[in-house]
Design brief:
Layout (H helix, E strand, L loop, with lengths): L22 H10 L4 H19 L2 E4 L4 H15 L11 E5 L26 H8 L3 E6 L11 E2 L3 E2 L15 H9 L4 E6 L5 H6 L3 E4 L15 E6 L2 H11 L30 E4 L11 H16 L3 E4 L6 H19 L4 H5 L3 H8 L6 H22 L4 E5 L29 H6 L3 E8 L5 E8 L4 H17 L1
Parallel strand pairs: 2-3, 2-6, 9-10, 9-11
Antiparallel strand pairs: 1-3, 4-5, 6-8, 7-8, 7-12, 11-13, 12-13
Length: 474
């Protein structure tokens, strides 16, 4: 099980070649009549046929259904008439299975869950459809999204297309695997502590966690966001232009704003930017020296281009990370506790053990844990407000075996020791983007996290695009 299904291995003439192209490349081909959305859908189907039996990225395959075929045909007609709906018209996309679609049961990645059947599409799904995107599948996730791997009691093991012995990351692991395998240009995941950024960095992808409230949700929750995983920053920006914006169904949604999501001018430079360099999370797993050095190298790129780069002292404490982990355990235990014993037995054992550890946590402890999370929100904003962007590792470690639920194996006592770099920016609501920066000597992907001030998603993506271009040149 060593074959790589990554789209980077494709060349023109391969049956799935069209599936490897960016949004801009596909749109240019549509406009020139070189290919149509119907042909691109067929190319994606070929990629799915080849890779899916191994990588297991899809919770539901939709590329051959009447809705997807009809959407591709309608997009083809619009491009032929010279009146596309926009850049995503005819572009194949996937959505994580916890993003509601009308009448489709939401299973939360678990064989033990009680499915909920939504009466309408989530804002993200509705906006993708309105933009002409062709939804080719929903992607897998671990039980209730509480793992940073591709293990699920409902879907089994999802694997990296780059090396099927390695994890996809999680919880948006299926979305990451679909992106790396070429199941379309845009893959929407969700993130509450790193669930977009971790798969992205372990799969060599761009993963953007938007500002809290930037992308409206059907079921908002503290820190929870939806955002794109793509193969380049420009595609991420194009996806954000579609899925962001106010929606009254989400009581956390930011006010309507006219944002220029273009990142093409990012190469003009970063001179004068104030850049914070976070090399130590302050808590959790120790950072692999290779990943720390990579972040330092990214900082040097910015400094050499005229940015002002300063090393930041960590602000996350071990006590806060433990409190956050315990609060999330209690949150999930409140869902598991009401299940029948039979249903609870169907939950992934690691997840069940992790949540059961909170069964005797008191209400007073839970309230204090919640207050610690709010404290982390304030501390993160205070520590970073003087900087335009903050560079850090995405995770303290590189990709680990696919069968492991967490980077250290199957010991549920480990809690959330791996999210020290990602979770502060989730709790603070700040935009944060994983940017690939190449591979280690052993072939595993490496990257850095670019985070920014609250609500400055555009600034983060432009800095990410600049870093992406500099990495390509280097």
């Amino acid at each position: 099980m060593t074959r790589s299904y990554a789209v980077r291995d494709l060349s023109e003439g391969d049956p799935g070649w069209l599936a490897s192209l960016s949004i801009a490349q596909l749109g240019a081909g549509f406009a020139a009549g070189h290919w149509s959305p119907v042909e691109v859908l067929a190319a994606v189907s070929a990629r799915i046929d080849e890779a899916e039996p191994t990588i297991n990225a899809l919770a539901e395959r939709l590329d051959g259904c009447a809705e997807a075929v009809g959407a591709a045909q309608a997009a083809a007609a619009r491009w032929l008439a010279g009146s596309p709906l926009g850049p995503l018209d005819g572009i194949p996309v996937t959505v994580k299975e916890n993003l509601a679609r009308t009448g489709v049961p939401l299973r939360s990645g678990s064989a033990g869950s009680t499915p909920r059947v939504p009466s309408e599409d989530s804002p993200v799904v509705a906006r993708l459809k309105s933009a002409g995107a062709v939804i080719v599948g929903t992607t897998t996730m671990p039980d209730w999204g509480m793992l940073s791997s591709g293990l699920s009691s409902l879907y089994g093991v999802s694997r990296s297309p780059l090396d099927p012995t390695l994890t996809t990351g999680g919880s948006s692991g299926g979305a990451g695997a679909a992106a790396a395998a070429g199941y379309g240009a845009v893959h929407i995941g969700t993130d509450i502590g790193g669930s977009i950024r971790l798969p992205a960095t372990w799969l060599g992808l761009v993963g953007h966690k938007p500002s809290y409230g930037r992308v409206p949700l059907e079921s908002p929750y503290l820190g929870r966001v939806a955002g794109p995983i793509t193969r380049n920053v420009a595609d991420t920006a194009a996806a954000m232009a579609v899925i962001s914006g106010h929606d009254s169904r989400d009581w956390t949604a930011l006010p309507a704003a006219q944002l220029d999501w273009s990142v093409g001018g990012a190469g003009s430079g970063v001179r004068g930017l104030r850049v914070g360099l976070l090399l130590d999370a302050g808590a959790g797993m120790p950072c692999d020296p290779t990943l720390r050095e990579l972040t330092e190298a990214a900082g040097r790129l910015f400094a050499e281009a005229g940015a002002v780069v300063e090393v930041l002292a960590p602000w996350l404490s071990e006590a806060t990370l433990v409190a956050l982990d315990r609060f999330w355990r209690m949150r999930l235990w409140s869902d598991l506790e009401v299940l029948s014993p039979e249903a609870r037995d169907r939950v992934l054992p690691y997840i069940r053990e992790w949540a059961e550890a909170a069964a005797d946590v008191s209400g007073l402890e839970t309230l204090r844990d919640y207050q610690a999370m709010l404290g982390l929100r304030g501390a993160t904003v205070a520590a970073t407000t003087a900087y335009d962007i903050v560079l850090s590792p995405v995770a303290p470690v590189s990709a680990f075996p696919a069968e492991w639920p967490m980077p250290w194996g199957d010991d549920a006592a480990g809690g959330m020791a791996h999210i020290g770099f990602t979770v502060p920016f989730s709790m603070s609501g700040q935009p944060s983007c994983a940017v690939p920066m190449g591979r280690r000597a052993d072939g595993r992907e490496v990257g850095v996290q670019v985070s920014g001030r609250r609500f400055d998603d555009v600034g983060v993506l432009r800095a990410a695009a600049w870093l992406e271009a500099g990495t390509a040149r280097g």
